[in-house]
TrEMBL record:
Family: Belongs to the Orn/Lys/Arg decarboxylase class-I family.
Domain Orn/Lys/Arg decarboxylases family 1 pyridoxal-P attachment site: 395-409
Organism: Caldimonas mangrovi
PROSITE patterns: OKR_DC_1
Highest taxon listed in the record's lineage: Bacteria
Chain ranges passing through the membrane: none
Pfam families for the chain: OKR_DC_1 (PF01276), OKR_DC_1_C (PF03711), OKR_DC_1_N (PF03709)
UniProt keyword terms in alphabetical order: Decarboxylase, Lyase, Pyridoxal phosphate
This protein's name: Arginine/lysine/ornithine decarboxylase
Xref: InterPro entries: OKR_de-COase_N, Orn/lys/arg_de-COase, Orn/Lys/Arg_deCO2ase_major_dom, Prn/Lys/Arg_de-COase_C, Prn/Lys/Arg_de-COase_C_sf, PyrdxlP-dep_Trfase, PyrdxlP-dep_Trfase_major, PyrdxlP-dep_Trfase_small
Amino acid sequence: MMRFRFPIVIIDEDFRSENASGLGIRALAEAIEKEGFEVLGVTSYGNLSQFAQQQSRASAFILSIDDEEFGAGSKEEVDAALKNLRAFVGEIRFKNAEIPIYLYGETRTSEHIPNDVLKELHGFIHMFEDTPEFVARHIIREARSYLDSLAPPFFRALVHYAQDGSYSWHCPGHSGGVAFLKSPIGQMFHQFFGENMLRADVCNAVEELGQLLDHTGPVAASERNAARIFNADHCFFVTNGTSTSNKMVWHHTVAPGDVVVVDRNCHKSNLHAIIMTGAVPVFLTPTRNHYGIIGPIPQSEFSREAIEKKIAANPLLQGVDPKKVKPRILTLTQSTYDGVLYNTETIKSMLDGYIDTLHFDEAWLPHAAFHPYYNGMHAMGKGKAKARESLVFSTQSTHKLLAGLSQASQILVQDSQNRRLDRHLFNEAYLMHTSTSPQYAIIASCDVAAAMMEAPGGTALVEESIAEALDFRRAMRKVEKEFGKDWWFKVWGPEKLAAAGIGERDDWIIKGDAKWHGFGKLAEGFNMLDPIKSTVVTPGLDLNGKFAKTGIPASIVTKYLAEHGVVVEKTGLYSFFIMFTIGITKGRWNTLLTALQQFKDDYDKNQPMWRILPEFCAQHPRYEGMGLRDLCQSIHEMYAKGDIARLTTDMYLSDLQPAMKPSDAYARIAHRETDRVEIDLLEGRVTTSLLTPYPPGIPLLIPGERFNKKIVDYLRFAREFNRKFPGFDTDVHGLVQEVDEAGNATYFVDCVRQT
Ligand SMILES: *Cc1c(COP(=O)(O)O)cnc(C)c1O
């Protein structure tokens, strides 16, 4: 196997000393190095938890217990040293159950060490009884076997293949990167991405790696490994994102004319699936607050009776007996963008047997399986009973919250008590949507991302994310307290926050009648807020949709942050959103916090825009002379005048009636039977495209639905706003913009042709 760099770490107070103890340990270090292993010698544990981070870079630890501090005899000293040792070993084992740990002693022996520490060790080295060479070989054997155990099946096979150096005649045409070397720009590409990435970019003719499309060989072994790790009965890796995973799940289960039950706040890939399958959707409508944060669908909406009522009311389903309809699929966004989760066990018990397939779109939730915090709040909980009839699917974007390359995604399936997934039939849908040339680096990242989450490491990683997220919330509150009556940003979430540590899961269960969320009365225990999602609220708008005299629209804050090197995930009217993935560090959120402080300072001083947002002003010189506070105020006043918070809430909650099946409306595009209709003429027309405002990126209208007045009012507002504040544009996907010679923009939407 390839040589990876994982030094053996020695921690010994005497590592650099000229005494006998120092000579002994250095002799061991030299013997290890002679065998070709790197050694990293340090003289103290230092900051315990930081040092334990080293467990991911080390192949073994050797901890000396000969040190002075271990006590020349006094009981207190020995106890203190033991406590240190125990804490250190505990910290490593919290994250890593396998890495070899040795104790090293000359005068002391294992008798001095209590059992709870001994049981975590791979051995006790008593130096003067064996030669350093002998001891070194023993440790190296263990370190090697540890390293060999790390790689999951596909990654292991890919590394082996890429190192093997065999010549191939198959595609891709760059032949392990060689093609790039034949041109200067190709050379640059090669140097940037590196040899390994290109050597590992192989085609599916390579037998020894297995086939993603048939799920064979090492790929299949990796999928089985991931299924086990994520508590699923089946796992399918997908290299084209969860957008594709969703379409696969749908195409396995839904055929033309089928009734499907869909979260109105769903990702557009599910809406594309409605169009592609020719389904008739009935929508479940989520609550919203006036910040524009999307809340949960009330529990009552999930009852069979409520769904039958919707079927009865659907103009496309007139003449069918709602009691006889069995919807094919339920698709629910499990973890909304803002972090609202559902009690999946409740939903399963309400719909089991009524709906064939329960599909949880867990694009933002692959971490939930690894921490008890999320117990019952994700699709496939450990030890949870299977549904009796319905199959449960979860689609997850490995790349969004775990360590996956972009587009890394997976489909997890839980069989029911009475039905197993027919993998062959499922694969028909899988093949319909997957490229026949999958990217192997993405498969490897699916494999590695899953292996990283293996207990106990995965739990430790998620716990760290939660801890960082809570530290951030506490830090924001501390700043607020210091400012006293002066303004500051708030992080949206429950009032109660643990004083230290990660607190309790119960702190994040959304209480039915709590005021902070603004979603009205909710069923008890049905929802949770994922603490790793943080929505930061800017001043100016309250939860009732009332505008204050002054305000700070979030889009200005996030532009400011971007020019200061902090890019946020999503921006709303008076809120923006950040996420504590397992890649987030203290440095990152502290930088955000200081940048927000600078913003406040610049705002309070009304600093000129040219000074604080030079890049933005270079693109939009009209703002150069303005002060930051003045700009905030003029945008704020325009929002207030348009009563935009209430308008968007009303618009999203308005009763939207389908005039035709989404697939029929879409067919008009294929048949070129559309009109490009100007905004002012839209009311009453039927759209052929998805219309999606950003923020929040939730489709407002889907093909086949009619424009109502509220939506037209909103589009007029967006048009007016974009004219007044270029650079802060409300982006509406689905709007067609045409610019005339004088530079004036007109906006259109493509609609079903009127004859
Ligand atoms: C991002 C997202 C998807 C699509 O995932 P990709 O991996 O980007 O294709 C699907 N569903 C939801 C809820 C998402 O947020």
